[in-house]
Amino acid sequence: MPTAPKQRKIAIVGSRSVGKSSLTVRFVEHHFVESYYPTIENTFSRIIKHNGQDFATEIVDTAGQDEYSILNSKHFIGIHGYIIVYSVASRQSFDMVRVIRDKILNHLGADYVPLVVVGNKSDLKSEQRQVSLDEGRGLGEDFHCAFTELVPAWVTMLRKPSI
């Protein structure tokens, strides 16, 4: 008899226009969204199989954050982990990763939260890049979390849960 899927809820957060929705839609619905439409909040679901276990995964695609944004209580209730996205073409969005992580930790009153940092748009030309791969890796090391760079078009290759 198959075991029931475990429930997981992951929030995708980051600055505006870094590609959170494009990554999410590509991962869940397997198509790429090229147009930019500001997101208020969307929730997507997908079953992910990892080590023989099914996970009914709810992915909350949040509105873009800035240093003055207030994370809504929905961004904390029942969330099992976070993916913080920045654009490799935006130093400001990279700097916001630390601000967003600190807001999450402060709200939860925690020193650690399951987290993945994603540098998005890594297919851009080198002259457009404002954040190096080593800087992204260094941030992942500072946070003791996973780090990767992605291109939204590649996201369908992901099969395992990161959190």
How many β-strands, per DSSP?
6
Shape: globular
CATH topology: Rossmann fold
Strand order of the biggest β-sheet: 2-3-1-4-5-6
Radius of gyration: 15 Å
Q: Are there runs of 5+ residues with pLDDT below 50, and where?
A: 156-163
Relevant CATH superfamily: P-loop containing nucleotide triphosphate hydrolases
Q: Quickly count the domains.
A: 1
The H-and-E topology, N to C, reads as EHEEEHEHE
Label the CATH architecture. Answer: 3-Layer(aba) Sandwich
DSSP summary: helix tally = 3
As a percent range, the share of strand residues is 25-35%
What's the rounded overall pLDDT mean? 80
Cα end-to-end separation: 26 Å
According to CATH, what is the class? Answer: Alpha Beta
Share of helical residues = 10-25%
Describe the largest sheet: 6 strands, mixed
Secondary structure blueprint with pairings:
Layout: E1 6-14, H1 20-29, E2 41-50, E3 53-62, E4 81-87, H2 91-108, E5 115-120, H3 133-143, E6 146-150
Parallel strand pairs: 1-3, 1-4, 4-5, 5-6
Antiparallel strand pairs: 2-3
